[in-house]
Design a protein that fits this description.
Distance between the termini: 43 Å
Order of helices and strands: EEEEEHEEHEHHHEHEHEEHHHH
Structural class: alpha/beta
Strand order of the largest sheet: 8-9-10-5-11-12
Largest sheet: 6 strands, mixed
Helix content: 25-40%
């Protein structure tokens, strides 16, 4: 697989100003020498407690933020080169936590058409893209609805459709389910998985829900602005004590296996799904 996102020794500080002269004040880096490559077509979850730097990293992919030191490349394009900005944002779309902040029109299909229209795409091509994007997120039947009539999960799927209509190779989702109920979270996660598996879109999911991260191909844990863990979900979540030491949880079934093991019960430590847990418990009871 080819690399689509390539961070090399990334360092970033947020600028603060003093009360007296409003001059910038040097602060502690939020990202500290982060090097990370993400392959095209993969599904990567990024975990970290609040303030760890995970959302800051995500905003570098879309060139919302530019590194103070090091480089971020998207499809080989340097994000610090302003001439690349337009092309990078076509390659890497971003979906934020609150869908209301991304929805700009009063009709669903008009909202999805907004970005392609601003790109100057021909009307017949926009029509095709809008229909395809809404079908991809299973919102085509709601194309004539007002976004205000939709649930939180449906709104977030419309926001994702708006990004898909730009035909990006990569979608970065910054805690897209944080404001949703369990049903809405399920709808959005099903959409994300389907886009990755059926359309080959690279998905980078910033989340604090461990069960969501368990559905990815790879998990990156960021702590204190550095990459702490980077591996497949089973191997990351099997390090229960390491994750707890940096304020993170593990899926509930992983926690159950961990607690049983501490009580001397022989059970696999890399359980991350309910199905795996049921099978392991059945084996114990036999």
């Amino acid at each position: 697989m080819s690399v689509i996102v390539d961070a090399k020794h990334l360092v970033f500080r947020y600028q603060e100003t003093t009360d007296e002269d409003q001059s910038p004040k040097q602060t502690e880096p939020v990202l500290k020498d982060v090097s990370l490559s993400i392959e095209k077509g993969s599904f990567v979850a990024v975990l970290g407690h609040n303030g760890s730097g995970k959302s800051t990293f995500a905003k570098h992919i879309n060139a919302i933020l530019i590194p103070d030191e090091g480089k971020m490349y998207v499809e080989g394009m340097d994000t610090s080169d302003e001439q690349n900005l337009f092309a990078i944002r076509q390659k890497a779309g971003m979906v934020f936590q609150n869908p209301d902040n991304q929805i700009v029109a009063t009709i669903v299909e008009e909202d999805v058409a907004f970005a392609p229209e601003n790109l100057g795409i021909a009307p017949e091509e926009i029509r095709r893209r809008v229909d395809d994007a809404l079908k991809a997120v299973k919102m085509y039947d709601y194309r004539k609805h007002a976004p205000t009539q939709l649930s939180g999960g449906q709104k977030q799927r419309v926001a994702i459709a708006g990004v898909i209509a730009m035909q990006p190779d990569c979608i970065v989702l910054d805690e897209p389910t944080a404001m949703l109920d369990p049903q809405g979270r399920q709808e959005v996660m099903e959409t994300i998985r389907r886009l990755n598996r059926e359309k080959g879109i690279t998905v980078i999911l910033i989340t604090h829900y461990m069960e969501e991260a368990a559905q990815s191909d790879r998990i990156v844990v960021i702590d204190g602005g550095k990459v702490l863990l980077d591996d497949v979900p089973k191997k990351v979540f099997s390090q229960v004590e390491t994750l707890k030491s940096v304020g993170l949880d593990v899926p509930q079934v992983t926690e159950l296996a961990y607690l049983l093991s501490r009580e001397g019960i022989s059970i696999e430590q890399d359980i991350i799904t309910s199905e795996e847990c049921v099978a392991a418990l059945e084996q114990l009871l036999r």
